[in-house]
Every structure is written in structure tokens, then in C-alpha cells.
Amino acid sequence: MTEPPFTPETLARRWLCTPRHVQKLCRSGELPCFHVGKLLRISAAAVEAYEAGECQSQPGSSSAIA
Question: What is the pLDDT, as a whole number, of residue 60?
Fold first, then answer.
């Protein structure tokens, strides 16, 4: 079964940071994300990869916030 995606708010609670920090990570391409309409979401797999240090910063990444 697939885990539901995180919102910036739910991920911020997990990481004990602000939702704005999560949004900055997405905007910079460090944390892969996607949009559902205007809503930002982060997959559980992306969170696990980031926590394991497997995500790379990719300027101009298609997952970044426009």
C-alpha cells in the first residue's frame, strides 16, 4: 500500500521546522515535489530519499516550484 504524500505542513511537523523551509527545499530542487492543482505535495519516497541523503540539488529541476 502506498503512503499518502506529505504537505509542507505535515513534513514540517515531522522535521521540526517551518512549512516555509520545506517549500524552500522544494523550490531549490533539493526535495522533489509535485503539485495537485495549486497544492504542493511531497511523496513519502522523496522524503525517505532526502532523509537518507540520496537527493541531489538540481537547479532547474522539473519538480521545483515555479
Answer: 41
pTM for the whole structure? 0.78
Other CB atoms within 10 A of residue 19 CB: 15
Residue written as cell 530542487? 29
Distance CA 2, CA 53 (A): 22
DSSP 42: B
Other C-beta atoms closer than 10 Å to the C-beta of 16 total 6
Contact 57, 30 (CB under 8 A): yes
Calpha distance 50→1 (Å, rounded):
21
